[in-house]
Structure formats: structure tokens, C-alpha cells
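Section handout 9: paired folding examples.
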Amino acid sequence: MGFTLMEFLLVIVIIGVLSVSLYETLTGGIRIWQRSHVLSAEEDIMIFFDKLSMDLYNAINFSLFEFEGGPKRVAFTTIVSVPFGNAEYGQVYAYIDQIGRVEYGFDEVKKVIYRRQAGYGQAVKGEFGGIEILVRSVNGLEFSYFRQSFGGLSSMKLDKDLLPASLGVEVTYGVSENQLNVLKRLINLPGSL
């Protein structure tokens, strides 16, 4: 019971065809995974933009707390929802809105964009609650601040008594260091107008 040369060549050709098709399927799956990873990051960034926009929409100039900002972090007074209930038993009956503070920032070590909030009592003590991670696997985050002038918007240095008219946000992300994408948004602060 031996194999002929034709049978042997036929088996080699079949194995070769199966190997090529398996390789194409595997590389196609990897490309789809990479693309979905980028789309997932974009969705998370858009949710971050929306959350930041909502907090900035409710931002107020409150004499007790200053608007603080830098290129990687911003903290300001706004309306926050805090749990109301029996803290001793960890029961939450409702959420109430009150003046508080929020902080958005970028952790360069963990490569994440985070949000922290403080109710009024915490804000008076200079404390914040736990960190909520909004976006993972981000290469950079940069805030810029603008004021309204006769010619339109112009860049500004922060003043403790004045809210900026607009906040520029730029997020850099990507699948690899060689392929970076940038999403930008300019958010107006109605409370400053």
C-alpha cells in the first residue's frame, strides 16, 4: 500500500490551498478586529465629548470655586447629580442635583481620559469622588481656552474670575504609534456669554 507521486502531489496542493485560505481568513479577522477597536475608541471619545459638553453647558461662575485648567486637565463648577439615601446601608433612593465640581483629565501613564466629580460638601473640602474612566487607550488629550473678541474667538490665559467663552478639546488615539488619529471639538460655555 504505497502512495503514488500523483496522490502525494494532490495532498500537497490541497494542504497548500487550505493553508492560504486559512491565512487569509485569519488576517481578515485581525483587520476587522483592529477596525472595530478604532471604532470603539471613537465611540468612547464621542461619549466623552457629550459628557464634557453637558457639564460645560451647566458650568457656572461661583465665587467659592475657581475654573481651573491646563493642557491636560480642567476642573470647574457645574450642576452634579449626587446620590441621596441611607449611606450607612449603601442604599440610594434618588439622585439630586446640586452645585458641585467636576474634573476631566488625562492620565499619561495609564493612557486614559477620566472624570471625577464632587458634590457641594466634597467641593468645599477640596475633595473629589472616585475616578470614572471614560476612554481607554488614548495617546493624548489637550485642552485649549478661548475668549470672545471682536474678530471672533481668540486664545486666552485663564483668569480665576472669568469663564472662557469656549473650550477646545483634542484627543489623539490610534491602533499603533505609526497610525494616530485626532478628534477635535470646540465647546461653547453658555454661562460665560
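Moving on to protein 2 of 2.
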Amino acid sequence: MEESFVLGVSTCIFPGESISVQDYALLERFGVLSVEIGYGHTGAALSQPSIREELVALCQDSRPSVFSVHAPYKPDRDLSALDQDRRTAAVNHAKAALELARRLGARLVVIHCSNAVAAATRADHHAQARQSLADLVPIARELNLRLAVELMTPGWLPAGVDEAFEIVDGLDATVVGFCLDTNHANLTGDLSETVHALGSRLWDVHLSDNNGLREKHWMPFQGVIDWKAFMVALGKAGYAGPLHYELDPQPAGVERGLYEIAETFERLMALSRTGANGT
């Protein structure tokens, strides 16, 4: 079971809009095998050509490889926007993120379907988000990319498994799947049950912890998530993708943060082994 999990990191641990060669080199040094280009760095690359070309050059010449790209979603990139012009602009921006992902050699793009939505207009936002995903599917297929819809906190779309499947209903299941963010999904239901429900359409995992009340992006084992149950559920589900640590920039610096990431990853692997052995 241990070999089925890959240590991954989102570049959100790097502060600022660009990533240095020296920082990126630390990833391989600490055993990171998979990278997700985080929201902040994707947004900067899409808005500033010089940063974009630096990022492309860095990822082409360095290891580890880029597995996924997190498409920007705020403040004006809401795929569920009720105004059609705003929704169209958000879709076009997401298309640019897909093209960036292709240039970076990524396999999938993580999608936020909305920003925070009001309860009174949730159904309308849901319909708009579905249309936006439908608009993106042929582009993703053409670029040989997959779209991973991220499960969100209660005020966003989609929140929970039922809403997640509703929002992708009827879309090509070979192109559209899910990203399970433990920090989000821990606020909407049981994580192990969520893993089981997503099944083979679980394509990416974001790891972080919280207090069970609010989104926090803490290091695993700093909050209330039952990590043993979660790791056992991933193993039983046959998940073989990366586990991307999606954390706030580390106050003690990137190197110390990566040390703690590697340490907690070993703890997670130990939990998965003991769970598989029934102990």
C-alpha cells in the first residue's frame, strides 16, 4: 500500500508570485515527487507574461514534475457568476489556465466552481457552474487534460458528495472528476465516506488539517482529522494519485516546512500500513 501514495506539494507553500530555482530544488531534496502549481502562482503567471515564461522554464528544466495546476478563481474569476459576461470572462480565464497546464506538462487542472454563494441564489449559481464546466470539457479533451472539481466548504459549490455529483452530472466522466480537499470535506461530512463515494473519479487530494469548525490549512496532525481512517479509506478505494500538501506559507520558512511535510508524510504512511494490517 505504501507505494500507492506519492508525496506531493502545492506551491502555495512558497510566498510571493514567483518561485525561485533554489526553492524548487528543495522539493526534490525532501522527497517530493509531485507538484501542484498553486492558485497564487497560476494567477500571477496568467497575468504577467514574464512570470509565466519563468515558470514554464523552471518546470521544464527541474524535478519533480508538475502533476496539476490550480486554476484561479477570485476575485473576478467566478465560474458560477450569474452575470453572463462575467461568467464568460471566467471561463476564458480558465481556458488560459488549461493552456498553461499543457505547457507545464501537467495532467489535470483543479477547478473551483464558485466563490461564496448566498443560499437564496445557490441553485442559480449551480446551473451557471455546470454550464461553465460544460464549456471547458472540449478544451480539456483537446489538450489531453482532465478537470478535477474541488469539493468545497459549505458556503461554496460544490459542498459535499451529493452536490459534487450533481454539478458534474451528464459531463464526460473521463474528463471531469474530483479533487478531495481534506480541509474542506472535513467540514461537510465524514472523510472516509467521501473517499468511498468518489471512488474511481477521485483524481487528486489536497492535504491539510483544521479544527472541525473552519478552514485552516494546518499541517496534518495539528487538528481534528482522523488521519488513520482517511488513509485506510484511500487504500481501500485504490487511490494511486499524489497527496498534495496544500498549506499556508510556513512561518519558519520553506525548508522547515518541507521537513515537517516529509515527517508527517512518513506518519501517514505508517498509519496506512497499520490500517491495512488491521492493527
